Amino acid sequence: MKKKLAVLLSGRGSNFEAIARAVREGKIDAEIAVVISNRPDARGLERAREMGIPSLCVPSRGVTREEYDEKLIEELRRHNPDLICLAGFMRLLSPAFIAAFRGRILNIHPSLLPAFPGLDAQRQAFDHGVRFTGCTVHFVDEGLDSGPIVMQAAVPVRDDDTVETLAERILEAEHATYPRAIALVLSGAYRIEGRRVVHRK
Amino acid sequence: MKKKLAVLLSGRGSNFEAIARAVREGKIDAEIAVVISNRPDARGLERAREMGIPSLCVPSRGVTREEYDEKLIEELRRHNPDLICLAGFMRLLSPAFIAAFRGRILNIHPSLLPAFPGLDAQRQAFDHGVRFTGCTVHFVDEGLDSGPIVMQAAVPVRDDDTVETLAERILEAEHATYPRAIALVLSGAYRIEGRRVVHRK
Questions:
Q1: Structural domains in chain B plus CATH codes
Q2: pLDDT of the residue at B91
Q3: How far, in Å, CA of B44 to CA of B50, rounded?
Q4: pTM here?
Q5: Hey, which residues of B are catalytic here?
Q6: pLDDT per residue over B68-77, tens digit each?
Q7: Strand A105-109 versus strand A132-139 pairing type
Q8: ipTM of the predicted structure?
Q9: Is B134 within 8 Å of A132 when comparing Cβ atoms?
């Protein structure tokens, strides 16, 4: 039976589109079972509808994090995903959520973690003056951008870069890296040693 | 007049050798005016002597950091270096030392800073499970491996790496990167904006 992905997003969901493309092209051997947004106006929801992918909004306004995550767990369980992919989902997940899907939640972050966790990572890196930054796909644990690293891509900072041109190049790297990391995790061709994710041939 | 470098080291000084090679090959337009070690038995001192480069030991045993740095400042001033290059110099420098040569001290660190400052950076990176690490040449300020970054090189972590094979590959990157960074700083073809070192054409 085809493996199932769930994608959580809050905005335009360009990483969701990159994942959907990889699924369509057979680079990820799975189907996207559901796309969930916490914002009703997320452009990613609209794109999912256009692509005929089941999608829904679980609105986050006016509910506590615990209540929200309970609803989210309920919706996700209905679709029974093998892997949950955060794609610009702008909410911290509760320990209860992490526990419900432990080892089955991936996130992509626009820096070479552990450098520059948190918000606005591209600007953090730019202002710090690093010559390399990039993106990181990692398992989600209870910490902030702290789970075991599945895959990274390095992106050089150019002398004529602005935060915007740098962020654009990092985003391209994200679109190339996230689908490959998802395919790897779905294939099971890795083992976790301490906090290292070692890829198997 | 030729610009003058001073190199400080504590051990084998393989980065010192890479710098000496670059000087010999004309890739760094300067001379090494002096090599100073805090340890009398540092292999780097011996290599300097073999190469006919002035070298001396300012022993660090049994003196306070302030006393030590005072002696070091005195010895360095005698040679009037344009740039002081730390090459495996295993001592923290005092604020007085930094102030005496502000903007003229470089260090190389075996990670992509700001990730993994401090000791045993290669192992820190390996154990953290990053897929990219590397090396960083930076100006030295009062913090730990925290000054403005001049140059970095990214080094991928391979699935069959051990800490040792990884450290070996990082060291090769150091030998390629440090001379280029020194040549850049000596050329003056950069400006500092905030904590960014922007290279000029």
A1: 1-101 (3.40.50.170), 108-201 (3.40.50.170)
A2: 86
A3: 10
A4: 0.95
A5: 109
A6: 999 999 999 9
A7: antiparallel
A8: 0.94
A9: yes
